[in-house]
Amino acid sequence: MAAPVENNDQLVLSEDPNHPANLICSLCRNFYTHGWVTGTGGGISIRERCDAHDRIFIAPSGVQKERLQPDNMFVMDFPTKSYLRKPLNLKPSACTPLFMAAFEKRGAGACIHTHSQAAVLCTLLTKGRVWRIGGIEQIKAIPKGYGQEGYMGFFDTLEIPIIENTAHEEDLKDSLEAAMEEFPNTCAILVRRHGVYVWGDTVWKAKTQCESLDYLFELGVKMVQLGLDPAAPIAAVEED
Amino acid sequence: MAAPVENNDQLVLSEDPNHPANLICSLCRNFYTHGWVTGTGGGISIRERCDAHDRIFIAPSGVQKERLQPDNMFVMDFPTKSYLRKPLNLKPSACTPLFMAAFEKRGAGACIHTHSQAAVLCTLLTKGRVWRIGGIEQIKAIPKGYGQEGYMGFFDTLEIPIIENTAHEEDLKDSLEAAMEEFPNTCAILVRRHGVYVWGDTVWKAKTQCESLDYLFELGVKMVQLGLDPAAPIAAVEED
Amino acid sequence: MAAPVENNDQLVLSEDPNHPANLICSLCRNFYTHGWVTGTGGGISIRERCDAHDRIFIAPSGVQKERLQPDNMFVMDFPTKSYLRKPLNLKPSACTPLFMAAFEKRGAGACIHTHSQAAVLCTLLTKGRVWRIGGIEQIKAIPKGYGQEGYMGFFDTLEIPIIENTAHEEDLKDSLEAAMEEFPNTCAILVRRHGVYVWGDTVWKAKTQCESLDYLFELGVKMVQLGLDPAAPIAAVEED
Amino acid sequence: MAAPVENNDQLVLSEDPNHPANLICSLCRNFYTHGWVTGTGGGISIRERCDAHDRIFIAPSGVQKERLQPDNMFVMDFPTKSYLRKPLNLKPSACTPLFMAAFEKRGAGACIHTHSQAAVLCTLLTKGRVWRIGGIEQIKAIPKGYGQEGYMGFFDTLEIPIIENTAHEEDLKDSLEAAMEEFPNTCAILVRRHGVYVWGDTVWKAKTQCESLDYLFELGVKMVQLGLDPAAPIAAVEED
């Protein structure tokens, strides 16, 4: 008989600061300082693949992200989708189905969800289903797309799809997956009036892409405040 | 004869970081970084209920909140409203009567008062007695109401009553209690040109609700700056 | 013969975190996080009066304020205005004559100078020689005036004089002293296009007054951005 | 035969916090808190000149700047331009040719590159090739110019040249050097839609000049938001 999943502490307790259970804690403290996980919102899930196993580490729902401890983490066996560890009295993040979409459909190594106000404002300032910004150096931090080598160029226009929010977070899964199909190269999906999901091949790529996108969201909002159009062709802004 | 209340240090000295006297200190340092307790403004009071006792921990008046020490705390026996500990040369926070209203009328486990500039600006931008915001995911962090299970929904409009400021903080008590009666489900009351009071069933709920409300106040101000109405029906903003 | 003033390390080396030489270092680190002492701008001077002596501690000029060390400090004997300690290779802050005005004319225990952008913006938004804000709770953190007991009230209008900047900081002394005479109750003087000087009876009063004023400067700028007049009578804003 | 350059750890490992390899790490953590090196953008290079050697320390490309470790550093012998140390699996910063221009043409002791949003916004708000601000005290932190003693004055107008961004960072070298020739006294060059390069005689001068310029960029953007012209003559703003 298998040991009760509540007790598999060895899956989350490690001296290694780069162990996924430790990284989720330290990254969430960092995200808190950015205003990305206010209250108990937002979060991150990390996938650990090696010869021996393929596991997902998930933070619990409803817990203050800057106060997470490694033993708060859920651990799922990715091939079987069964939990290897379930902390008593906690529920896995309501974002779990959305994180799973990034792991399953994009082979992501980590997926981050933030309630960044800059992201929310970009969705409020955009009438259509795509937020755009062009001609900013930071765009070069965004990968060309799923299964492609390299990064976007300075002269490219970055497009991030926006899906509509739903009453329950888990109900976003269908439209999130549909947006992934329609925009196969995006590494992020904005959720109107809610925030953003960002994924990457590794936890560090997910983090730097999330930071770079948030920089672009924030810059885009400031440009609108100053009467500039973030999606305008480069020359148009200079001659405006 | 009872020991002099000045000397009851055992009520506030503890190695446990979650002891109320320690929590008030660490939370106030956190609040300082948010700009909620500038100067000596704002504060927090925590109620500790257990089989053995029912006590209120109160920070002193006029002390820099980010430099509070556990032995600065006042301790009150809640049933008798008598002080069990009174630090020499200090006075209890002028907010005490208002914190008591949250404990007595709403059974709160903690009450937070901030001078958040976002809260003040929301009261300046609102002509009437109620500040409103609708259709933002973060609203789901706010409980449905006193004595009810569960949290507000994404499609709900959040309403926070605003009371007028008075010359002396303690004089706010009557209008704060009246607003609690009139808005029995609110977990917060804005004070025009002053700040906000937020309470919750536990200290952590009070903190996450205060963070979530401040996020919404800040987002609401930014929406107004961008020409968007935080209280508009969802469709209206998208088609605007 | 007196010991060379370069060597009086005992005047600045202490284990006590509240020793003026240590406080200047820790407060300047705090000020750096507020954006008050960017580059090498701004600073603080503390006066230590006791039965045994009456001394001024002054930070050096041109040094990064968040990296100050206690042995960078100058110490002056206040009654004789002679330096008791002069670190080699350093010059006392160019603000020294202005700090001295607060000590001599207002009996201050500390004087803080910041390059706060909010302060600079308030001077740019004000055509006349006085910046005003009224009807904000944080005003109650400002003392009524020199030689008076108590603090301003919520319904009072706070007035901070503005003097014009000069090419050399020390040349501000005459106009700063003239403003002190003309506005005997002010605890601060704004310098157009430059920043603000704030003093208080003790180092903690100077710090909390400086924080509260900066809060009011920042709020005042935000009000202007939102089309509100910080100096308007209370009713006028509500009905506007 | 020379030792493999991969192994010259003694060039970067030191207990001295002011060793260039340690300083690059601690300064980049500081820059991260300012939002200057979001994602993996921006960076700093330090030149160490002494009787024994003349070396350049360079951070690697594509690494999160707030997580740099001393053993991530490249070390170049400045006279021969040959690498003395090359960490395996890393590439030197793409900014290296631009940092070299500051060392070669201006005798800089350090050069900083940031993606500061305030810098980017200043380039977006300026139609021509020069960003200007005048009559702000913080301008006095900027040196008069290459080979000159002293600093700018309060009544001076600061001019920072803007070059156009290119697809590849290294391709900026020609226009950066041309701008250095055309504006021999500038200590910084803005790159449109990208960020800024700032250098100084020493690492501390580079840092304080970078902070002071960023303060001025930020203030300049806020002035535009408030309808004020950062480059207007002083009287014009007051009477406006």
From TrEMBL, chains A, B, C, D:
The active site is at residue 137. Pathway: Amino-acid biosynthesis; L-methionine biosynthesis via salvage pathway; L-methionine from S-methyl-5-thio-alpha-D-ribose 1-phosphate: step 2/6. It is found in: Cytoplasm. One of its GO terms (biological process) is L-methionine salvage from methylthioadenosine. Keywords: Amino-acid biosynthesis, Cytoplasm, Lyase, Metal-binding, Methionine biosynthesis, Zinc. Its EC number is 4.2.1.109. One of its GO terms (molecular function) is methylthioribulose 1-phosphate dehydratase activity. InterPro entries: Aldolase_II/adducin_N (IPR001303), Aldolase_II/adducin_N_sf (IPR036409), MethylthioRu-1-P_deHdtase_MtnB (IPR017714), Salvage_MtnB_euk (IPR027514). It comes from the Eukaryota. Substrate binds at residue 95. Residues 22-221 form the Class II aldolase/adducin N-terminal domain. Its cofactor is Zn(2+). It is an enzyme of class 4 (lyase). One of its GO terms (cellular component) is cytoplasm. SMART domains: Aldolase_II. Its main location: cytoplasm. NCBIfam families: salvage_mtnB. Belongs to the aldolase class II family. MtnB subfamily. This is Methylthioribulose-1-phosphate dehydratase. The gene is MDE1.
